[in-house]
Write a structure and sequence with these properties.
Blueprint (H helix, E strand, L loop, with lengths): L2 E7 L3 E8 L4 E8 L11 E2 L1 H19 L5 E6 L5 E4 L9 E2 L7 H9 L3 H8 L9 H7 L3 H9 L2 E4 L1 H10 L4 E3 H4 L5 E2 L4 E2 L1 H6 L9 E3 L19
Parallel strand pairs: 1-5, 9-12
Antiparallel strand pairs: 1-2, 2-3, 4-7, 6-8, 10-11
């Protein structure tokens, strides 16, 4: 019977389930990972550790289920931001987690400038550090990362984008539900909003292609299932 692999990449751990077509769970795996708090109010993750524990959880679930899944679906911790090199697929900074408050002053500045009504009308979201845009803006203050982003040499995304890129060998995508949590997605246009990209100084070239939430997007590399493989 056909089975699918579901990965829930959460804030403190990754859970993987192998689910048969009849709905029965036949395999399960779980791994936790490290939380980093470099300063008060700052929360970071190591993208490579997220990848490693997710692979371990998936391999455990597949081994327990005794069947190679025919599809993989990912749910994830939403607004957390990852930056990586497009060529090597190596992260170029720690991920800034949705809980992080380092951009609170920037959000306050935007509200004081009277920009929150515009942002809310376009995105449906309030101006808050919870969302991805000010995190990405903060990361791109680094001149080298800014130049690489403008050249299209680095990629940005929320955690599902990072995992898909690593699992497929470079596919750079996000779905509408994740994109809509970034403060960069216009609800009316159902895509990246040029005015918001300008406001947060985010080059379009760094962002993923927005795709449907369900469907065939790419093939998982065979090395994913080899123990010890990154």
């Amino acid at each position: 019977m056909t089975a699918i692999l579901a990965l829930d990449q959460g804030t403190t751990g990754s859970t993987a389930l192998v689910v048969r077509q009849d709905g029965h769970v036949i395999g399960r795996g779980y791994r936790e990972f490290t939380q980093y708090f470099p300063e008060p109010g700052w929360v970071e993750h190591d993208p490579l550790e997220i990848l490693r524990v997710s692979l371990e959880a998936m391999r455990e679930a597949v081994a327990q289920g005794g069947v190679r899944p025919s599809a993989l679906g990912i749910t994830n911790q939403r607004e957390t931001v990852v930056l990586w090199d497009r060529r090597t697929l190596a992260p170029v900074a720690r991920a800034i987690v949705w809980q992080d408050r380092r951009t609170a002053a920037r959000c306050r500045e935007l509200r004081e400038l009277g920009l929150e009504p515009m942002i809310r009308s376009r995105t449906g979201l309030v101006c808050d550090p919870y969302f991805s845009a000010t995190k990405l803006e903060w990361l791109l203050r680094d001149a080298n990362l800014r130049a690489a982003a403008e050249r299209g040499d680095i990629a940005a995304g929320t955690v599902e984008s990072w995992l898909v890129a690593r699992l497929t060998g470079g596919l750079h995508v996000s779905d509408h539900t994740n994109a809509s949590r970034t403060l960069l997605y216009g609800l009316a246009a159902r895509g990246w909003d040029d005015e918001l990209l300008g406001l947060f100084s985010v080059p379009r070239a760094v962002l993923p292609e927005i795709v449907p939430s369900a469907g065939v997007l790419g093939d998982v590399r065979e090395s994913t299932w080899a123990s010890g493989s990154p």
